[in-house]
Amino acid sequence: MGKSRLCRKFLAMCQADGGQSIFRRAQADADTRLRDPETGRLSDASGAFSALPAAIPGKPSLFIVDDCHFLSREVCRTLVDAAAEAARAGWIVLFAGRHMPDIDHGGAETIRLLRQSAREIESLVRQALAPAEASTPLVQSIAKDAAGVPLFAVELARQPADGGIAMSLMLTIAARVDGLRLDRKLLRTVARSSHPPTADEVAGVLGENNESVAPAVRRAVATGVLLADADGRLAFAHPLVRKIIDHVSLE
Questions:
Q1: Measured between alpha carbons, how far is 47 from 45 in angstroms, rounded to an integer?
Q2: Which superkingdom does the taxonomy of this entry point to (predicted)?
Q3: Angle at 236 (CA atoms; ends 224, 216), nearest 5 degrees
């Protein structure tokens, strides 16, 4: 819950400086096409950098491709090669994704967004809490539940005194699930399972066959909401997301 926000910030900075920008998103259900978020138009990824306008002297020219984790290795390779040509022509090119294929990036800079340390999260929680409430046990408890995510830490610090989950946090998670177009029944089944289930087990609970569940599982794993181990067992990447989905009916 950070890379796309950074992309939008970079776009805003580029526009504020009088530059030009192009923004595209990869699609989970079309791994060779990119979507223009403004128009909704889809285009083939192989031609993403064709017919680029000339870079503006003294102004930024920025091309961003977000959600690259949905692209195949071959498509990423093609985009990286084309981006190198665009960079030599004066364009700044940014690829953003939860993970990228292990390919030669031509010496491009890599920025990794990591979860914050327990100490950093505890400091953030103390700032969010009223001084009289910031006892060490409470701060440490909130930091543990936040598990390195600043947004979760701040929202947990604002939660009701009775220990309930703050409505703002529930809405944030629900909106994220909707925005990623994840299967709610799949997530709820995994959240409420007593052990990490396989896709077959999820399908059994839902009364569906494995083939019908597999695309939803692949998407949930690709977006990083779910993790799959070597045996194909599914678990939430963040315990708080599981807690909220288990707590709230998303139907």
A1: 5
A2: Bacteria
A3: 60
The pTM (predicted TM-score) of the whole model is 0.68
By residue count, the chain amounts to 251
Instruction: Say if residue 26 is exposed, middle or buried (CB neighbours under 10 Å; 0-12, 13-18, 19+).
Output: buried
Written as six digits, the tokens of 245 are 């989905």
Q: Are strands 42-44 and 30-35 parallel, antiparallel or unpaired?
A: antiparallel
- Report d(CA 50, CA 48) in Å as an integer: 6
75-94, pLDDT tens digit by residue?
888 898 899 899 999 999 99
Exposed, middle or buried, 170 (CB in 10 Å: 0-12/13-18/19+)?
A: middle
Domain 118-247 in CATH 2.60.40: no
In the chain, count H helices and then E strands.
10, 7
Cα 209 to chain centroid, rounded: 28
Place of tokens 């949905």: 70
* DSSP code for 227: E
